[in-house]
Amino acid sequence: MNIIKKVLGIVWLAMGIAVGYYGLTILGIPKLTSGKQDDLVFGIIICFILLPIVVGGLLVFGKYALQGEYDLIDDNPEHAHFKE
């Protein structure tokens, strides 16, 4: 199970990078430079509010998963607990 968590950490990091790239190049910057007021508001919301939250969360979860913060200690089969 711990190996799956480390692999998912890599997946989360890759998703964070992909969402950041896609969000800036497809959703953010074109909306900011379109010249329409509606697009400008949407671009500001995407670039300065949503992207930092989404990308930051994915990158933090991926980092913690790779560091082993979510690994379980199986010293007692009836009660497994997280590392301290």
Q: Would you write up a description of this structure?
A:
The chain has helices at 2-32, 37-67, and strands at 72-73, 81-82. By secondary structure, it is mainly alpha-helical. Strands 1-2 form a two-stranded antiparallel sheet. The relative contact order is 0.18. The model has no long low-confidence stretch (mean pLDDT 88).
Describe the structure concisely for a colleague.
With 84 residues, the chain is mainly alpha-helical.
User: Fraction of residues in helices?
Assistant: over 70%
What global shape is seen? elongated
Largest sheet: 2 strands, antiparallel
Rg calc: 18 Å
What's the layout of helices and strands?
Elements: H1 2-32, H2 37-67, E1 72-73, E2 81-82
Antiparallel strand pairs: 1-2
Write a concise keyword list for the protein shown above.
84 residues; mainly alpha; 2 helices; elongated
